[in-house]
Design a protein that fits this description.
The protein has helices at residues 2-20, 34-61, 80-91, 95-108, 112-115; strands spanning 66-68, 74-76. By secondary structure, the chain is mainly alpha-helical.
């Protein structure tokens, strides 16, 4: 049971890293108005979920290069988040593209649970 707690803490640390410095750079925005901060965090959470979703799909569709460490552990060379964020960044350039992407997701009716 202790390992589950450690995994949750590690997963939370990774999420915060992606949101702060390794993906969305929230700290660089220098927002001070509480309403704007809440709105921005909400948008970042939605984008994070979409990036993870797309990363899982990409992982199933194409082979992802893995790195093997001395202790025998193997991990993807690019994280699911990074892979998904890159895929979304490549297809969404404008608000029109974002609307088209979200409509496509809505038609597919995939939930994150169905993908995993």
């Amino acid at each position: 049971m202790q390992n589950v707690g450690k995994l949750n803490i590690a997963a939370s640390a990774v999420r915060f890293k992606h949101m702060k410095t390794n993906g969305f750079n929230l700290e660089d925005m220098s927002l001070t108005d509480l309403k704007k901060i809440r709105l921005m965090i909400s948008l970042v959470v939605v984008a994070y979920i979409l990036a993870i979703r797309e990363g899982i799909i990409q992982q199933k569709v194409q082979k992802i290069r893995t790195i093997k460490y001395k202790n025998g552990d193997k991990y993807p060379a690019v994280s699911i988040f990074r892979n998904g964020l890159q895929a979304i960044s490549n297809c969404i350039i404008s608000w029109f593209d974002l609307n088209k992407y979200l409509s496509f997701i809505k038609k597919k009716k995939y939930s994150i649970i169905q993908i995993v």
